[in-house]
Each structure stands twice: as structure tokens, then as C-alpha cells.
Amino acid sequence: MSKFITWYLNLKFKQKLLLSFLVIIFLTTLCISGTNYAVSNLLITRYVSDYSIAISSQIASNFASQVDNIEETNFIKYQNDGAFNEILPVSDYTPIQNRLSYQSAVDNLLYSTDYYKSIAFLDLNNHLYTAGSNLLSDQSLDYFTNEAPEIKKSWGQCVWDSCPNGNLLLKRALYHLPTGTYIGCLFVEIDRDYLVKVYEQSIDRYGGSVVIFSLDRKPMISDHDTFEQIALEAVSSSAKAENHTVRMNGETYTAAVYNTPDGQWILTHIVSLSQLTGKLHVIGYWILFIGFAVFALAVVLAFLISGNISQNLKLLTDSMKQFSNGNFDEQIVPASHDEFAIIADNFNTMGQKIKTLMREVTLEQKQKQQIEYQMLEFQYNALQARLNPHFLYNILDSISSLAKLRDEYDISDWICLLSDMLRESIGQKKRLIPLDEEISYVRKYTTLYQMMYRERVTFIYKSDPSLSFIPVPAFILQPIVENAIVHGIEGISRHGVIHICSFSQDDTLILEVSDNGHGMSQDIIEMILNSRYSSEASGSPSHTKVGLVTVLDRIRLLYGPEYGIRIQSVQEEGTRIRIILPIATTLYHDHSTEDQE
């Protein structure tokens, strides 16, 4: 085995490819042909077996209907016959007149139906009356007297039995209908062909043989002793509607067992597997012939394909040698437009990209030097941006000092508050700050406004001291307060009141700003809550409402969609805006945004 592997590995690529193709094609053809033959055999057998169950079901239903029809007809004729119903039976002896009436009734019953072959009636006093063929008339009186007790136990129901000549025997106890008195037993020989014809056409069309058993597994209708034995073996295995495979005398049979709907009969449909697969060898010959033809054609195609593949592979290896020597301009021109053509195109593209990358590396080195110079400029500009606010603070402090020297204390207070607010707004680099710092900033903001409006507006603060160190986003409250002042209080004739509260509720922090101003329309509220508000959409410039949208977006970005703002407003009565935040136990520190001195 190792020698063969070594020999195979030392073959050229074209020879390996051709040999591999031949082996794969041969094994594939062999497997497909064998599988096709086996599957065909299996499918035919399974199809016929399943169809046999369907036929058995239909035959059983038809047979049960035919039996019910016979029993019902027999009862109607017995019911309508005056001899059986008008003559009151007498124990110990039967009058001669009654005997004549019984015999006449038996004769009339025989000729009333063409499938009655013979009839016998045993009266209460064991007098026998017969008509028809010799089957029943040849039987001894003991036969009927022995059968009578068992028949009487059925209380008028039909009891079926088989006859030696293949016909069926219907037995039932008769009663005087007006009084319900037992009058005797009726024996009717039923023509077998009358029952067989309900399924004869199906058997002639689909093949097989039918054997019918009584509920106690006694054969009632059978075509052959062999089929009877096969059916009995299948019935002994199960009485359910399923297929059984039975081997007998070197032959394999499939037997479908099915109970009639009334549960009184067991029907078996038997089919020989040799009949099913008798012509399957013709399919085998065709499969073999087609397999050889396909294999021969595949050998020719394998030779052509392997030659084409090896030719393209040679072009690829030659071009790779040129590529390894630094000749990136070498282009592969494939002989065909298959996968090797795709490889060739990608190889050619790779060569061009390498050349492009080499040029880009040189260009990037120059750009890197320019970027380093620009970074120095950015650092210088950033330093200037940090120096300018300090210069502004110093100017404001100087103006405040000058105002105090001139006894302008109100102006000095304004400038001090403004300076503090600018210092906090420009110098604050943290994303989260304690709640008391945020409220302190808002107090300075509202103090400036109150100094401007004097008695027109009142700010009322109410906060829970235990929440002072809860971290909140920086400058989250000021846009809400500004909105209450600009859109709520400005322009109203009554005194304005703005409440600023903080409290906790259900593990959340609530920052509430309410006013008694103009209020907002529901359309504006919906646009704000859906982050769709803009000054263009509202028809008027309004940076404060845009600020509300910004606050909402910041909260959702930091904490998720379950947090944000809630707005309640009644026009010309006022507005209440709540900021909903989670309660955090520790302060968040973003060191990357701290002031770097």
C-alpha cells in the first residue's frame, strides 16, 4: 500500500488528476447504479405494500357492508314471513299444519334470493325442514340439534361459519316476534361468489389474493391452502392494519392485515414479492448499460478537463517565477474563463496593488511628516484656548473690583455671578457631577435672572439633602430652567413662579421644574419626546426647546431608553418637566476628561 501511495504522489499533476477522476467516476457510477437498483426494488415493494393496506381497507369496508346487507335482508324476509310470526309455537309437539307452514316458509325463503343455495330450519321440537342443494339436507339431525344451543346464545344475532364446499353458512335463532318466544334455528347457505364479487375486480386489477377470517381466526373465504397458511401466520402476528413479510416454500410474501369496521372479520391481502419484482431485472440491465455509457463518456471528459487544468496551472507557475524576481508587470493570460481565470485575474490585480502600495507607502511617509507638524500647531492652539478664558476671568474680576470702588455693588454682584458661571461652564470637564453642584450652578443662573426681572418671577427650591451626592450629568438642569423662563414666564401678565425640586421615587432620581407660564401644545411635546424638534419644524427660532431635545438624547445615551424626560403641560396654565435618572451610589469619574494643567 505504501508503494502505491509513493507511486501516486510522484505522478505529475495531470496524471494525478486524470487517475483521480477515473477512480471517482467509477465508484460514483457503481454506487449510483447499485443504489438506484436497490431503491427501485425497495420503493416498488413499499409502494405495493402500502397500496395493499389501502386495498385491504377498502375491501374490508365493502365486505362488511355486503355482510350487513345479507343479514338485514335475511331479517326482513323472516320478519315478513307469516309462518314464522303468525304461528304460535307449541312445546313437545308440532302440529302437522304448522309443519306444512314452516316447510312452505323455508321454500319461499330459498327462492326469494338468488344467493341462497340451501336453507334448513330446526323448530322448537327438533323437526327439520330443508330446501335447496344437498349440503344442508344431507346433514344429520344431530348436527343441527348440536348447533342449536350455541346459536340460541346469540339471541337472534347472525352467526357465520364456513361450508365444506367453500360457501358460507349463516346461522341465527328465530323468535316469534309478537310474543318473543323462541321458535327454532335458521341455517342459510350463502353463495361464496356473491361475497367475493365485492373485491374480485380489485384483485384482478392489482393482483394478489384475499383470505378472510372470522373473529376467532377461523378461515372463512380462501383461494388456496398456501395462502390460507400465510394469512393465518400474518394474523397470528397482529390483527392491526400493517404489512407482514412471510416466507413459505422458498417464496416471500407480503401480507396486509386489516379488521373490518364492525370488528367481526379479519381480512388479509397477500402478494408474492416475486410477482412485484419479476420485471425489475429489466431495470437492472438498463441501469448497467447506461452506467457503462456514462463511465465511457466521463473518461473522455476527464482526459480533456485534466489537460485544460494542467495547461492553466503551467501558465500560473511560470508567472509566479517572474513575480518572485520582482517583475510585477507580468500579466497572466489564461486559456479559458474558469476558476483559473479568476485566480489569474486576482494574481494580476495583486501585482498592480503591490506596485500601488509601494507608491502609497512613500506618499504616507511624507503625509506623516505633515501631520506631525499640524499636531504641533493644534497643541499650540489648544494652549491658547486654555489661556483665553483665564484672561476673560481676570477682566471680569477687574470690572467687579472697579464697580465696588465706585459703590456699584449690584453691578459687582452681577459680574461675580457671571464670572463664576463662565468659570464653571468652561472649566467643567467631568461628564457627571454631584447633584448639589448642579443645583448650585442653577441657583447662580436663576439669581442672575431674578436680578434682571426683579419682582416678576420667583424661584422656589425644594431638594432632598440625602440626594446631594448622587451623580448627575453636568449642566442637565439648566436647559430645563431656561425653557421655563423663556417660554413659560416671559410675556405673561401675572407673577411667574418656577419650582425646582429633586426627590427619589422607585429607585429613580426625579429632577422637576414646573412653572405657571404659557404652556406647550401637544404637538411640540410629541416632537420633543421623539427627538424631532427643530426651530425650522416649529416655525420659530427656539434654542431652548432644542436644548430639551439635547437633554433627552444625552440621558438616553448615558442610561438607556427607559430614562429621559416627562412633560405635562396645559396651555395658559403652566408646564411640569421631570428628568428621570437612575440613582447611582458612587460618583462616576472619567479621568480622560479631567482638567490637565
From TrEMBL:
Its EC number is 2.7.13.3. The chain crosses the membrane at residues 283-305. SUPFAM superfamilies: ATPase domain of HSP90 chaperone/DNA topoisomerase II/histidine kinase (SSF55874), HAMP domain-like (SSF158472). It is an enzyme of class 2 (transferase). Keywords: Kinase, Membrane, Phosphoprotein, Transferase, Transmembrane, Transmembrane helix, Two-component regulatory system. Residues 476-585 form the Histidine kinase domain. PANTHER family: SENSOR HISTIDINE KINASE YPDA (PTHR34220:SF7). This is histidine kinase. It comes from Hungatella hathewayi.
